[in-house]
Amino acid sequence: MFLDNALTLDPFTFNGGTPTTVAAATASANVYDIAGAGYGNPITGVNYGQNAHPSSVFGDDYGIGSYTDAPVILVQVATTFTTASGATGLQIILQEGADNGSNAVSTWVNVATSVTIPIASLTGPSSLTAIGATPGLNIYLPFPPRPPGLALPRFVRLYYQPVGGSATFSAGAVSSAFVLGQKTSLSGSAVANNYVTWNA
Q1: What is the distance in angstroms between the CA of the first residue and the CA of the last residue of the chain?
Q2: Which of 80, 92, 138, 166 has fewest C-beta within 10 Å?
Q3: What span, in angstroms and rounded, lies between the C-alpha atoms of 92 and 157?
Q4: What pTM was computed for the model?
Q5: How many CB atoms lie within 10 A of CB 142?
Q6: What is the pLDDT along the chain (200 residues), one digit of tens a residue?
């Protein structure tokens, strides 16, 4: 699995970052700009092959895997979640936004929403340094193609929505990023004993 710091939405502790605390409904710490200029920054043009796109119309559909495999978003629980007011779980929402002409987003659009992840599953690592420590929960979310009728997005972020009760947490933090490559932490763990041995 490949993880690039430039594709990080919520910082990771392994590179000195501070994961995003989720106490109530919270947007990811960073917004990813598909154009590469950064949220709020102008671009004069992005050249893909023979096509130059001015910033006023720039957008792309990462979900179809235009230039490489379609990316996956990894969300990693960095601090175990505990409820403050009856919250029973967490939904993770992928939001996209078109450039409003000022290198920003006027309205974020929900393009994909996870199932509600029960609070009992939102466990962080048992240790950040000990060898053999239990890792935190890793959640892999596929990046979907652009829904029909929506403008091509320039900006992408995540939105964390507590579910149940008054929907707040007393503790809980996440790290997240776009990733490519094999999800090694899932190898052999998703489905147990899904095979039959052959007798020679």
Answers
A1: 36
A2: 166
A3: 11
A4: 0.80
A5: 12
A6: 566 777 899 999 888 899 999 999 999 999 998 887 888 888 765 554 444 555 455 655 565 555 556 678 999 999 999 998 889 999 999 999 888 888 899 999 998 899 999 999 999 987 655 555 677 899 998 888 777 777 788 899 999 999 997 889 999 999 999 887 655 554 444 444 444 444 44
Query: How far is 162 from 171, CA to CA, in rounded Å?
Result: 12
Q: Where are the domains of the chain?
A: 2-40+50-182
- Residue 126 token pair: 């048992």
Question: Alpha-carbon distance 141 to 159, whole Å?
Answer: 13
Give SS3 for 25. coil
DSSP string, 152-189: PPSEEEEEEEEESTT--EEEEEEEEEEEES--GGGTTT
Which CATH code, of 1.20.1340.10, 2.60.120.1110, 1.10.10.60, 1.10.3720.10, is assigned to 2-40+50-182?
Answer: 2.60.120.1110
Strands 117-118 and 89-97: antiparallel
Two tokens at 47? 């050249």
**DSSP symbols for 121-142:** G----S-SSSTTPPPPPEEEEE
